[in-house]
């Protein structure tokens, strides 16, 4: 009996060790690719088939910009799971919710009805800020979202904006903050249905699979026939992106965050966007070498 338990324990430890191993070849390739970048960068990559990882400043805290909308989605889905909200419920838009910009929801008339699932779609698909701030409020404020994240073991991922007690840290990181390893792990948990019910996680994956922003970003280097579940976030000195690439033989998580970037331009040739596309192309060819798709 003791020998049997010992064998089981050894197997468990072996699996854990295997799942945490570093892909040294890929690590070297990525470290070479980011040399000379004029800013700070953090990268987390994980093969969802082998468990091998690459960590480059992956526990460093970065601004989320619009990637904070993933934690907000978690806050809303938690309420749906508990029966406190309903995915198909209708809500009344008020002009007081408007966040000035080019948002679709901001073009609504005061008093118009919209389904919760459509507000969520606008937040994740088009990165609509009016929808996002409304959902943050519906989720029970940033305080509740942060408590939920903490309960899941995420210590670096936080909502700062409109969250009492986080005014000073908001001045540093803006709307939200996270680390590449945490956001990558959060997406993996959604992908594996480890964070809520399978139904809830599948709903989140479907929303994350409809990203409108796919021209300048790393997602643009993935073939159009491959499922990608992603969210990106950008402000002047920070361009970041997190995704699960559901490759046919080697699905993987890719999370890249930048801050204090010298190049603050908003053109296709922006240094951070260019680097992220190059890394994304490298990863696709690395994990799916038999695929012949080449982006023109």
TrEMBL record:
Known InterPro entries for this protein?
Answer: Beta-lactam/transpept-like, Beta-lactam_cat, Beta-lactam_class-A
| UniProtKB keywords | Hydrolase
Single annotated GO MF: hydrolase activity
Recorded hits in Pfam families, A to Z, give: Beta-lactamase2
Q: EC number(s) on record?
A: 3.5.2.6
Q: Which reaction does it catalyse?
A: a beta-lactam + H2O = a substituted beta-amino acid
Q: Which family does it belong to?
A: Belongs to the class-A beta-lactamase family.
Protein name stated in the entry: beta-lactamase
Give the source species. Answer: Terrimonas ginsenosidimutans
């Amino acid at each position: 009996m003791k020998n049997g338990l010992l064998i089981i324990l050894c197997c468990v430890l072996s699996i854990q060790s295997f799942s945490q191993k570093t892909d040294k070849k890929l690590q070297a390739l990525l470290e070479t690719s980011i040399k000379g970048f004029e800013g700070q960068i953090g990268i987390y990559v994980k093969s969802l088939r082998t468990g091998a990882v690459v960590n480059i400043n992956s526990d460093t805290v970065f601004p989320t910009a619009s990637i904070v909308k993933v934690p907000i989605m978690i806050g809303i889905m938690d309420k749906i799971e508990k029966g406190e909200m309903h995915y198909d419920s209708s809500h009344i838009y008020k002009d007081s919710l408007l966040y000035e910009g080019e948002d679709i929801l901001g073009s609504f008339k005061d008093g118009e009805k919209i389904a919760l699932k459509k507000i969520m779609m606008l937040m994740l698909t088009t990165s609509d800020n009016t929808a996002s701030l409304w959902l943050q409020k519906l989720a029970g404020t940033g305080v509740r979202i942060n408590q939920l994240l903490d309960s899941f073991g995420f210590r670096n991922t936080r909502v700062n904006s409109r969250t009492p007690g986080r005014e000073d840290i908001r001045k540093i990181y803006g709307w939200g903050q996270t680390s590449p390893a945490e956001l990558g792990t959060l997406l993996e948990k959604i992908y594996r249905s480890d964070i809520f019910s399978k139904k809830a996680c599948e709903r989140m994956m479907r929303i994350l699979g409809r990203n409108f922003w796919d021209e300048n970003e790393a997602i643009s280097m993935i073939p159009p026939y491959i499922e990608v579940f992603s969210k990106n976030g950008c402000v002047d000195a920070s361009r970041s992106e997190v995704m699960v690439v559901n490759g046919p033989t080697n699905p993987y998580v890719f999370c890249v965050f930048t801050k204090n970037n010298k190049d603050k331009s908003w053109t296709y040739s922006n240094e951070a966007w260019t680097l992220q596309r190059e890394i994304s192309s490298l990863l696709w060819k690395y994990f799916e070498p038999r695929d012949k798709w080449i982006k023109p």
